[in-house]
Amino acid sequence: MAEGPEWVRLTxxxxxxxxxxxxxxxxxxxxxxxxxxxxxxxxxxxxxxxLAEDLAQxxxxxxxxxxxxxxxxxxxxxxxxxxxxxxAIDHLRRRELDTLSLDGSPHAETPEAMQATALQIGARQESxxxxxxxxxxxGAIEAAIGRLRPEYRSCILLRHVEGRAYExxxxxxxxxxxxxxxxxxxxxxxxxxxxxxxxx
Amino acid sequence: xxxxxxxxxxxxxxxxxxxxxxxxxxxxxxxxxxxxxDRAQAEREIVEQLAxxxxxxxxxGFEDRVMTQVRVADPFALRSIRQRIFATRRSMxxxxxxxxxxxxxxxxxxxxxxxxQELLVSAGNWVLSQGSQAGWLALRGLxxxxxEQPWYESARAFADHPGRLGAALGALALAYLSGMFALxxxxxxxxxxxxxxx
Lengths: 200, 198
What we know:
The complex is a heterodimer of chains A (200) and B (198). Chain A is mostly helical and 200 residues long. Chain A has helices at 12-20, 24-46, 49-65, 76-100, 111-117, 128-136, 140-146, 150-161, 166-173, 177-194, 196-199. Chain A is built from eleven helices and no strands. Helix content of chain B is 72%, strand content 0%. Chain B contains nine helices and no strands. Chain B has helices at residues 11-19, 24-32, 34-51, 62-67, 78-85, 89-115, 117-147, 152-160, 162-187. In chain B, helix 2 packs across helix 3 (34-51). Chains A and B meet through helix 2, helix 3, helix 8 and helix 10 of A and helix 1, helix 3, helix 4 and helix 5 of B.
């Protein structure tokens, strides 16, 4: 089969079959198809370009190295988004644990001990990369998304940025359909309240 | 002012309205209820803003960076074949069907052979006799063809003289050995370092 435009006519499932047959070009095609949406989801989840890129890379490597375990009765997009979302949630949970230690060790008994065990955060100079991030995620809506709970954030991004159906989101996040609807409604509500000042 | 009919819009109603599938009765409520209209309109604005967010891309070379860590599947690896057989119920059913057909045909073949041993023996004898007859005919044809060659008489006269035959065989053996020696020298790896390869 020829390289290039031929791939456009193939479904994800057909490309996966070619990948399983040992075609490197098929692996590359899967990366090309999903690198942007997967990266965009992760970037808006973790709000750090470099980290989002690492997590996106981890997502693809994990998915493509386990391509034989992918079940073709499910959408490939659901599978890759599920891996990406799990990577983001795992990272956010780890970060939450790290953030707790900013206040010092929970075993510290005096204020001095707490201060001694607390992480020191200096004034950080803004790097060119930070400036790019600030510009990319600087909109009021992006900031409001960043303040949502991670579960709400995944739901709202998958629904209204990636355009996924409720059923697919339920499959990606391993949540009941009703819960997904509730999360999306609450997320929209929070965004509406957060951006209310802009409407006035 | 006409009161809006029915209760206020539920989140599901707002969702239907956003998708353009809200029924006429609820749409009428929305038209007449400023509270619901404001709320639905605000949600629509949020949805539109979300849909127009830019699609971000990773840094160039992302695909290559991923591929350096990916192991491309080997379709002939035993593990890969096993995983493909057990991938779906359909593939398992096909594999089971093929295995059953293979074992069944082998069992049928053995059973038929045991039940028709005499027939097999007579068929074997017939094939053997036909084969030996055909072989003998081919040998005779070859020999007569050989004898009819113009050089046959002179070659036979040469072979009748033992001295000449011995000398010819000796020369042949010598040529063979020299040829073998020359080939071995040609195929041997260089034992010394070549100056420019250092």
